[in-house]
Amino acid sequence: MRPLTRLFFVCALAACEATITKPVGVTPTGPDDTPPAPDACEGIVSAPGAWPLQRLTSRQLQRTVTRVLGDDTHAYDLRLAATDEVLDARLRYALAVSANPVVAEGLVLAAEDVSIAAVSRFPCSGADPRACASDLATRLGRLLWRRTLTSAEVNRLLADYDATRIEGGSYAEGASSVLHGLLAAPDFFFLQQPGGESGAAPRLTGTRLAERLAFTLWHEGPDAELLDAAEAGMLDTPAGLDAALDRLLADPRATEAFGDFLVHWLSPEKATTVNVALAPATRHPGLYPAFRAPGAVGGDGEAFGAALSTFLSRAGRPDTGTFTSLLTSDELVVNEAVARNLDLPAPASGATEVRKSETARRRGVLGQPGVLTALGRFEASDPVHRGVFLLRHAMCFPLPSPDANVNTTLPELGGELKTTRDRFTAPTQAAACAGCHALINPLGFSFENFDAVGKYRETENGAPVDATATLPITVDGKKVAVDGLGELADVLARDPDVRECLAKQFASWALHRTLTPAEACAVRDSTKAFTTGDGAFKDLVRGVVTASSFNAPVLP
Amino acid sequence: MKKGSMLDRRSLLKAALGAPLLKTLLPSTSFGQAAAPPKRIIFWFQPGGVCHAHYHVRPNSTATDWGYDAAGDTHTLLPLLPYKDRTIHFDSDDRVTESVKADDDWTKLTDGSKHPFGLTDMAGCLGPDPTKPPDAMGRPTRELTIGHESFASLMTGRFPTRNAGGWEARGESIDVAIGKVLGAGTRIRSVQLGVNSNGTGFGLSYQNDGQRLPTVDDPRQSFQTLFAGIPSMPGVDPARAELERKMKRRGRAMELAYARFQGLESGLAAPDRTRMQQHFDAYRDIEQRLTELPMVTSSACRSPMAPASNLNINDPLTLPARGKLMMDQAVLAMACDVSRVFTLSWTHSATNHVFSFLPGFTTMPGPNNEPSPDGHHPLSHDAYGAGFAVVTDANRAAFDKKRRIERWYAEQLAYFLGQLDSIREADGSTLLDNTVVVTLNEIYHSGAHNNSNLPVRLYGNARGAFQTGRYLMLGHTPLNSLYVSLANAVGVPMTTFGEPRFDYQFTGPFTRWQWQSKSVTTGRIASL
User: Residue A19 — very low, low, confident or very high, per pLDDT cuts 50/70/90?
Assistant: First the structure.
């Protein structure tokens, strides 16, 4: 095996060095006389990405029927969730692509389950039941198909109502036929696709724009007010679009959907969201006796996730939040599990409290115990994965993975190795590892005041904790030195490259596809207000939904 | 849209609704006169390779004089001995039994060999890799990956292509291809069932040139798909009238959808039109079974018990119960002739599933918070040390757990075969007599990750299509050739399947596949 191992070490090293000499996103570490990186977008030309006909995911369909019809059957989740395809666990967006019998049966039978259960929520009080059915087709049809139905379409739905009644069906059965027809039709589960030949199509306007905005910002279809604005042409003026965005973003649904983006962004490798990583979290019972593993009820990881959601619903609000507040807020969300693990005073029974952090070294979302635990190990903090997370997710740095043959076993603590930092330093100095770890370690070590469950510490095993680091980030040609997470968070919050990276990921998440290089540059330009200003998320959203990648369709 | 197809469908519908629910209540008393029952084929997938010393036949076995007794009580296939006469156990005639020595000696075709030998699939060999040097003749090198990803080619028999996210299958899989012909008159042409099989991107069955067919892991969902309208006691169905009314309304909703598909499709760019048409076709595909009551033609046809509504399909402890539900559903769905082609996926390639219902398995995560080391995939690696051999005590402990997993799978297969053999068809034969069950595994040796000498066995002979009770040794044979033979055995004529030729061989340890001077052509296996 020896020659083979050496071969892979060389490969791994070469891969990392290749990225080090080609700056992407951050100005990487190197000799101090490294020239400033050229504009990464200069001369970038690429064909715009095609917009294939887009089917809504099971989640979007379910949320829409829950909102419009008050659905409580969860039929779209139950029947279709397993058919959504995640194209790449690292890209973290779901797509619904393939047409096959399982999908078709799910679509037809979920429509049936939902329509039968929903009808009782729309009783007919008038004397003319057919008029009630007509009202359902018109009013609910508009919300489900995200456009006003033509009279021919309404009549076609009413024909099914009539046929059911003629067979002796009740009003409820007739009305559920109308809903079934609306839900089983492709108008419900496909986004409206511009027609025409392959190539550039006219800009999105009206209800086509409205539904894409709503499914991106709310994860569900537009409401009547947005459709009114769309059909009156108001979304097609900058002022009208701004007003609509303000309203959309102020809605709790937007906070929920943007929070969903953020928990995807915060996920460690190999998990789709930070909550998915937290739910099964366990800790060494000897070292972390307070930490409860999941059992019949959720463990502390799940409780940490809930606290994180509360944090995000404040600092991560898309209408009032800023990137700066997300990263540097001095708030710490404390519930019973957080207080128990962090040795803080317990909140009132069952309560979740928002407090000021106990130390200036705990700042922002990275200082919340949920994130620190998701990026932690069973027995210790995990500087490597904390650093890898920042490089990949905050800086969009294409860090290669170590080859599977690299021995990643860490030496045990003891003797000379007093702290976690000691334990990680020696094995990452090997020639095959040093290239990448020169980037990873400083970022990760600046988190070292926080252990594997996010508890603050100044000493570890009797030795003082060293959270100083010289970051692979240059400001004015000099590498930045920090001491602790608070200072790191300040640097990251100010770094325009970190904001550009977030914008790129939000755009990709909104479009359910990767951006071509030219599209990424267009997003960079349209989100300038976000990256250079105070980092308002409202500017991020506005920049992404006004970029050509969002509103200028290119037919496949 | 397909013109005229609506009319055909309507007339079909009328004909079906007019037909009697129960064509024949009792099996024909005169076996000779009964129409021959249909042939069926089942693909049984379990991942992770096999524990060799406990898998192979005893030394010096011959084609007809063979057995599993070499490893004594620990042999993984002992539960299948009662079906020995109805088995074909494949092996390679190149395989040598000595243990692997130097890992760079690629001429020895031992269990850990990377050289293609025995039944070999297309895995490990992706599209031409432009970054790797061509061979001396200027022919391209193909990129190599390691074994588990081979699920994308296992049943399609085509080299997958690589995209940003992973591997993309090409072509259609053998179950879909056979189902199109064999299942033409049935309610579902091919059925994909599984337990805990939805791993990232995992799938064995593909249609429409590489579109994955989802595997249904939820027995409640498959129960509805397979048995709607089929009573749990022959001939008695109190819910029939209500279901018929529901189906009528459902049919109208689908009619409306067809009109909307057509309305939306006009004007779309060509690729979008194709996608819309595929959705239309998928609706058409399921229309008959969603809108017409099934015709029950066999006295053995009944629905199984409906699965409990609070079933937790993620609980590792209920895997055996859910597997049994799926097996029972498959057997009865065949008895009802709902479908003739089934694929049963037990978990997925590289699964971390912990068989925690077996003694000594823990679901506790490992020291680095990684999935439990008792997961099937971690065990399959921990079982082997240097030279792909079981060396250390830790290796032996993992190996023993892996062996017990395989033994458990063999018990399940024995149960399944027993159920198939317990159902009488109209001519007095059993379901198993008219069926062939094919075992598939994405790799052979989980230490070496190779895709050679795949642990394929056949049970049943599709009503005498080939001779069973044999230990059949093959040279380097593409799995595609077995598929061609199996398709013909169940009455689906086929001369080739998947890649028509297999032209590559490894040229060195872990490096690359290169063109082989002597290529192997896909076609029926003569000795079968």
Answer: very low
Mean pLDDT in chain B?
A: 83
Q: Residues 152..171 of A with a Cβ closer than 8 Å to B: which?
A: 156-157, 160, 163-164, 167, 169
Does the pLDDT at position B422 exceed 80? yes
Residue B196, SS3?
Answer: coil
According to the model, what pLDDT value does residue B202 have?
86
Residue B242 lies in a domain: no
Question: pLDDT at position A370, please?
Answer: 97
Q: Is B301 helix (H, G, I), strand (E, B) or coil?
A: coil
Per-residue b/e over A119-143, b at no fewer than 16 CB within 10 Å?
beebebeeeebeebbbbbbbebbbb
A287 in B contact zone (CB under 8 Å):
no
**Contact between A98 and B212 using a beta-carbon 8 Å cutoff:** yes
Residue type at A140? L
- For A556, the closest chain B residue by CA position comes to B271
How far does B61 lie from chain A, in Å, by closest CA? Answer: 34
pLDDT above 80: residue A92:
no
Number of domains in chain B: 1
Beta pairing partners, B342 = B42, B191
The percentage of residues in chain A with a pLDDT greater than 70, rounded to a whole number, is 91
B210-224, B454-468, B497-511: least confident range: B497-511
Residues of chain B positioned with their CB less than 8 A from the CB of A100: 207-208, 211-214, 282
Q: Cβ–Cβ of B164/A185 closer than 8 Å?
A: no
pLDDT of B124 higher than 70 = no
**Amino acid B33: pLDDT:** 52
Domains in chain A, number? 2
Q: Is the pLDDT of residue A113 over 60?
A: yes
Of residues B422, B195, B431, the one with CA closest to residue B334: B431
What are the b/e assignments for A18-44, b being 16+ CB within 10 Å? ebbeebebbbbbeeeeeeeeeebeeee
Within a 10 A sphere around the Cβ of B59, how many other Cβ atoms? Answer: 7
Kindly determine whether residue A186 and residue B290, on different chains, have CB atoms separated by under 8 Å: no
User: Alpha-carbon distance A522 to A546, whole Å?
Assistant: 10
> Does A545 reside within a domain?
no
Nearest CA in chain B to A408: B368
Report pLDDT for A7: 24
Domain residues for the domain of A90 are 58-189
Residues 357-386 of A with CB under 8 A from B: 376-379
Q: Mention every residue, 6+ apart, whose C-beta is less than 8 A from residue A385.
A: A268, A269, A375, A376, A377, A444
A144-176 burial by CB neighbour count: b if 16+ within 10 A, else e? bbbbebeeebbebbbbbbebbbeeebebbbbbb
ipTM: 0.87
CA A421 to CA A308: how far, in whole Å?
Answer: 26
Structure tokens at B26: 């009792």
pLDDT, average across residues A56-67:
95
- Predicted confidence band at A352 (pLDDT cuts at 50, 70, 90)? very high
Q: What's the rounded Cα separation, in Å, for the pair B120 and A284?
A: 44
- Please count the other Cβ atoms lying within 10 Å of the Cβ belonging to residue B516: 17
pLDDT tens digits for B289-309?
999 999 887 888 999 999 998
Write the burial class of residue B164 (CB in 10 Å: 0-12 exposed, 13-18 middle, 19+ buried): exposed
Are residues A93 and A25 part of one domain? no
Same domain, residue pair A119 and A29: no
Q: What is the mean pLDDT of residues B472-487?
A: 92
Residues of B in contact with A55 (CB under 8 A): 279
With CB atoms and an 8 Å threshold, state whether A108 touches B256: no
Q: Is residue B189 part of a domain?
A: yes
A392 assigned to some structural domain? yes
Nearest C-alpha in A relative to B268: A195
Does the distance separating the beta carbons of B279 and A186 come in below 8 Å?
Answer: yes
CB-based contact B303:B232 (threshold 8 Å): yes
